[in-house]
Design goal:
By secondary structure, the chain is of the alpha/beta class. It folds into 2 domains: 285 residues, 3-Layer(aba) Sandwich (Aminopeptidase), CATH 3.40.630.10; 124 residues, Alpha-Beta Plaits (2-Layer Sandwich). The chain is 33% helix and 23% strand. The chain has 10 helices and 16 strands. It has a 6-stranded mixed beta sheet with strand order 1-2-6-3-7-15. Helix 1 packs antiparallel against helix 10 and helix 2 runs antiparallel to helix 4. The longest helix has 21 residues.
Length: 431
């Protein structure tokens, strides 16, 4: 027990450093879209980790759709090799944050510390988790300088928009090959006493209905695509939504409502382009809409097949087509992500579970995320299945105004991460 106590003390004495690092990260507005200041935050982290003895690489996701000269997609991967060969534990955090939005009472990029909470966009999701993993690794290295194996810390781009220029790009480069990395922890904010095993699947698609333009004073000479879409929406309400509500998963998805299949309509537009800027006072032209589009967000369960998910929507559209003269439609795929769930007896799960019990004196709760995060790329592209999300912060605060992370939660999570490193990388622990 002496080694564990010394390690937790090494975390505790870094409290002020943890606060300062978190605040520094928040103060860099890495907004996505469009992808601002990615290089700046990678440079800050590179300087910090090099000082701590890590070998650092800055990797630009060249050739990915989001990468551009104005907004280059920069990623950081840092590695610390121990005294002896062994397994690698990798902490992966995304450095991008979503738009600020309205309703803030503090500076979104001020990193204000108030009553034990650090406020700012990204404080919870997930710059607090990124800082926590760094403090945990540094405390561990200081306590166990002769450890076996290696530690990696990555800060990656664009998780908030799918991760294709971040973790997906690194996975395609072999960075998550199981021969290179054996354990992955993603410090997403899912509460410090929870281990997130994976996430539901997602299918985004655009559905377009078509009609024929005509004068709005003589709509009988045209064919309204908006009315056709209204019939689609009515069929969704009448048949598809009730069907999805009957499905339940054995996955421990949180919150409770996400244990059923869900469907959201992200957007809808028909007719002429919406008026913008100085033109917003102009009257629209009197025309029958010949196009109408919706974007759907279908979240599906591990018990469902993607082909089945798509077929249900197609079947619904074919039913409407059979009932409506002149009805035509087109479906365009936007995004597909399969569900994923790490086994409860996986090495990283069992190790983090034991560490939570030591630090928090409570049994860890296993959960699954309602939405996806970068585990999908590590699992599907990297073929590395020993991966979880674990980190400080309350999930409900993510993307909210006055977002915050608790200093106490970060310290507790850093203790859990540090004990996890000790269990996995110290070959002959004495206590």
């Amino acid at each position: 027990m002496r080694e564990s106590a010394a390690l937790l003390q090494a975390v505790a004495v870094r409290r002020d450093d943890l606060i300062a690092l978190t605040r520094d990260l928040i103060r860099i507005p890495t907004l996505n879209p469009p992808g601002r200041n990615y290089r700046e935050i990678c440079d800050l982290l590179a300087a910090r980790l090099r000082t701590s003895g890590f070998t650092v690489e800055l990797i630009r996701a060249l050739g990915t759709p989001a990468d551009s000269a104005r907004y280059p997609r920069w990623n950081l991967v840092a590695r610390y090799a121990g005294a002896h060969p062994g397994e690698c534990v990798h902490f992966n955090s995304h450095h991008d944050v979503v738009e600020v939005g309205h309703g803030w009472t503090v500076d979104p990029f001020g990193g204000e510390l108030r009553n034990g909470r650090i406020h700012g966009r990204g404080a919870c999701d997930m710059k607090g988790g990124l800082a926590t993993s760094i403090i945990a690794a540094e405390a561990f290295i200081n306590t166990h300088p002769d450890f076996t194996g290696s530690i990696e810390i990555s800060a990656t781009a664009d998780e908030e928009s799918g991760g294709h220029s971040g973790v997906a790009y690194l996975a395609e480069q072999g960075r998550f090959d199981p021969a290179r990395v054996q354990h992955v922890i993603i410090p997403e904010p899912l509460n410090k006493d929870r281990i997130c095993l994976g996430h539901r699947g997602v299918w985004w698609a655009e559905i377009e209905t078509r009609g024929r333009i005509a004068h709005g004073a003589m709509p009988f000479l045209g064919d309204s695509a908006i009315r056709h879409m209204g019939a689609v929406l009515d069929e969704m309400e009448r048949a598809l939504y009730p069907l999805l509500a009957t499905r339940r998963t054995a996955m421990p998805v949180v919150p409770e409502g996400a244990r059923s299949s869900t469907l959201n309509i992200n957007s809808i537009h028909g007719g002429e382009p919406e008026q913008q800027g100085e033109d917003h006072t102009a009257l629209p032209a009197p025309c029958v809409a010949d196009r109408c589009r919706i974007v759907i967000d279908r979240r599906f369960l591990i018990e469902e097949e993607l082909a089945q998910v798509k077929a249900e929507v197609t079947t619904m559209l074919e039913k409407v087509k059979a009932e409506r003269p002149g009805f035509t439609y087109e479906i365009t795929d936007i995004l597909e992500v399969q569900p994923t769930m790490t086994k409860e007896d996986a090495p990283v799960v069992r190790t983090v579970q034991a560490a939570i019990e030591k630090v928090l004196h409570t049994r860890a709760e296993f959960v699954v995320s309602p939405g996806t995060y970068d585990q999908k790329h590590i699992d599907r592209i990297g073929r590395l299945h020993n991966c979880i999300a674990y980190g400080p912060g309350i999930l409900d605060l993510a993307h909210q105004p006055d977002e915050w992370v608790s200093v106490e939660d970060m310290l507790d999570s850093a203790g859990v991460m540090a004990l996890t490193l000790q269990e996995l990388l110290v070959t002959a622990p004495t206590g």
